């Protein structure tokens, strides 16, 4: 009888442990939610999470669309026929030559890319965070272990690579559409026209030109964005400096500040790779030379055999500073963009009633 009781007790303990392990995967709080029990509810939760990420991306990018366009124009600007050097000067030039609509040129295509990109990125980060935390707890044997900044960096890098790869063709044609001006030949009428034209004239591989520097750049960029943002929030909640955190919650203003700091770190590290990515995307486009290369004797060749060659030719013809062309407008853009994206994502999830948070 005692033996049967022991076996029954061991069986019960084993079942409880199994359920506990399943709960870790279902919820960051370690509690089995209704979403975990109901497949249809789980699907609804996933859809809401993706929707929140998409809205965050669309809102944040539209808010800084003029700066986004100026950044790309500066990155690929003709070094022998410079029209503007600074942010204010560049914005005034676009306004004067193309009007108000010129400031938002390419934004529709950008949103068509960034909405799914942002949705996949935020959702992938949540899933990667759970998976990495689960493995980390298993390896350390510490069931109460939390995500460290390094682990968050890894989760963010995974999310960035997945999102970038899934939406890269749209980013590639968006770059080309954005650099078109009133004086340049209009080859593309929109995103779908651009995609079909590139496929027909350059082949499917052309849609992934510049993919390698993009992936390499997205690792520190997205990784640092998530790592710095989440780690900074956790530190503020735990240490409560200057009484910033109230009842383990941060105000919208404080979260915006956290996002701004995160964006600054990420974009500064990854910016040279972003410049090279844009330039590689121009290769093969018949009218790209009118935008990037000079028109006189000093015309720089617009042909790159790869990422390293693109770096080498850019520095040789234009100097090391060319790797940071457009950094100022990009910095002005990134600070509010990343901040708005993070906060919008969390606010929309709260409105939709999604309980899963960005990190554990």
UniProtKB/TrEMBL annotation:
Q: Which InterPro entries match?
A: MCP, MCP_dom_sf, MCP_transmembrane
Q: Keywords in UniProt for this one?
A: Membrane, Repeat, Transmembrane, Transport
Tell me where the Solcar repeats sit in this chain: 44-131, 147-235, 250-351
Instruction: Check the record and name the Gene3D superfamilies matching this protein.
Output: Mitochondrial carrier domain
Q: Does the keyword Transport apply?
A: yes
Enumerate the PROSITE patterns for this protein: SOLCAR
The compartments listed are:
Membrane
Primary residence? membrane
Q: How does it sit in the membrane?
A: Multi-pass membrane protein
Superkingdom classification of source: Eukaryota
Into which family does the record put it? Answer: Belongs to the mitochondrial carrier (TC 2.A.29) family.
Official protein name in the record: Mitochondrial adenine nucleotide transporter adnt1
Q: Which organism is it from?
A: Stylosanthes scabra
């Amino acid at each position: 009888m005692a033996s049967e009781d022991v076996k029954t007790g061991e069986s019960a303990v084993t079942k409880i442990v199994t359920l506990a392990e399943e709960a870790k995967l279902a919820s960051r709080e370690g509690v089995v939610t209704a979403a975990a029990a109901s497949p249809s509810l789980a699907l609804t939760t996933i859809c809401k999470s993706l929707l929140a990420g998409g809205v965050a991306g669309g809102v944040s990018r539209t808010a800084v669309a003029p700066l986004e366009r100026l950044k790309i124009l500066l990155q690929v600007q003709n070094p022998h026929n410079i029209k503007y050097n600074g942010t204010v000067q560049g914005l005034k030039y676009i306004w004067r030559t193309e009007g108000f609509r010129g400031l938002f040129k390419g934004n529709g295509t950008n949103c068509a890319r960034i909405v799914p990109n942002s949705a996949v990125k935020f959702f992938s980060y949540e899933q990667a965070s759970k998976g990495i935390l689960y493995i980390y707890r298993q390896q350390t044997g510490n069931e109460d272990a939390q995500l460290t900044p390094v682990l968050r960096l890894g989760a963010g890098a995974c999310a960035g690579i997945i999102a970038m790869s899934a939406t890269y063709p749209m980013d590639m044609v968006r770059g080309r559409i954005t650099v078109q001006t009133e004086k340049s030949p209009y080859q593309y009428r929109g995103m779908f026209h651009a995609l079909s034209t590139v496929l027909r004239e350059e082949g499917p591989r052309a849609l992934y030109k510049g993919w390698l520097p993009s992936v390499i750049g997205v690792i520190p960029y997205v990784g640092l964005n998530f790592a710095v943002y989440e780690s900074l929030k956790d530190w503020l909640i735990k240490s409560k400096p200057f009484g910033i955190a109230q009842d383990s919650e941060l105000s919208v203003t404080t979260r915006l500040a956290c996002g701004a700091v995160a964006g600054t770190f990420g974009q500064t590290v990854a910016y040279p790779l972003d410049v090279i990515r844009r330039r590689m995307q121009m290769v093969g486009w018949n009218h790209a030379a009118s935008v990037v290369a000079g028109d006189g004797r000093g015309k720089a060749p617009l042909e790159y055999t790869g990422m390293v060659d693109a770096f080498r030719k850019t520095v040789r013809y234009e100097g090391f500073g060319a790797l940071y062309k457009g950094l100022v407008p990009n910095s002005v853009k990134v600070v509010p963009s990343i901040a708005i994206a993070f906060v919008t994502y969390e606010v929309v999830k709260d409105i939709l009633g999604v309980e899963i948070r960005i990190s554990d």
